[in-house]
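Cast an eye over this sequence plus tokens and explain the fold to me:
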Amino acid sequence: MWRFEEDGTMSHYGHIALRDAFFSPERVGREGGIDSLLRGAVKQVAQEVDLKVWSLINIYNYLLFVFAHSGSTTGVVACLFQFHIFICRSQS
């Protein structure tokens, strides 16, 4: 994730990978705060959204939510496996 100072220069902490910031919000706070990340997000060019993939992600998230709240871990695994097979078949 890009980080920039108020004057538009790159943060002296450098950019940060999402994997490094995701589970450590204290690091973001120590290294310039959220403002530098928001300035970096504004400078990035957005990619075109693939609506077919976005729909599949929404279905996947819904299935995870339903089975996670049902208390059935076997159901989650089985459902995700079937969903993966369905996706693979529909793309070929």
Summary: The mean pLDDT is 78. The radius of gyration is 19 Å. Residues 51-70 form the longest helix (20 residues).
